[in-house]
């Protein structure tokens, strides 16, 4: 999976060098396989971002 990232909405591998859809949230860039995944993420990013839990 060298050079690939995972679409946080659907779990598909995406190549950031050729990805057509991306969005920035919290200082991090997320890449998507399709416009629908990007729109779903932008509507509710916290649903798809795995935040570390503080204990």
How would you portray this structure in words?
By secondary structure, the protein is of the alpha+beta class. It has one domain (5-47). It contains two helices and four strands, in the order ββββαα. The protein has helices at 35-43, 45-48; strands spanning 5-6, 13-14, 21-25, 28-32. The strands form two sheets. Strands 1-2 form a two-stranded antiparallel sheet. The longest helix is centred in the C-terminal third of the chain and has 9 residues, at 35-43. It is globular, with a radius of gyration of 11 Å. Residues 7-45 form the TRASH domain. This is Cu2+-exporting ATPase. Its EC number is 3.6.3.4. One of its GO terms (molecular function) is oxidoreductase activity.
> What is the percentage of strand-forming residues?
25-35%
What is the total number of structural domains? 1
* DSSP helical segment count: 2
Q: How many angstroms does the end-to-end distance come to?
A: 32 Å
SSE run:
EEEEHH
Main beta sheet = 2 strands, antiparallel
DSSP, total strands: 4
Main sheet: strand order = 1-2
Structural category: alpha+beta
* Helical proportion, percent range: 10-25%
* Rg for CA atoms: 11 Å
- Principal-axes shape call: globular
Query: Unreliable runs, pLDDT <50, ≥5 residues?
Result: none
Please state the average pLDDT score: 92
Keywords: Hydrolase
Enzyme class: hydrolase
Pfam family, one: YHS
Protein name: Cu2+-exporting ATPase
């Amino acid at each position: 999976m060298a050079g690939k990232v995972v679409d946080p909405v659907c779990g598909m591998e995406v190549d950031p060098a050729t990805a057509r859809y991306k969005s920035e949230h919290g200082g991090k860039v997320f890449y998507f396989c399709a416009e629908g995944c990007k729109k779903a993420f932008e509507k509710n990013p916290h649903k798809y971002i795995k935040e570390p839990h503080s204990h």
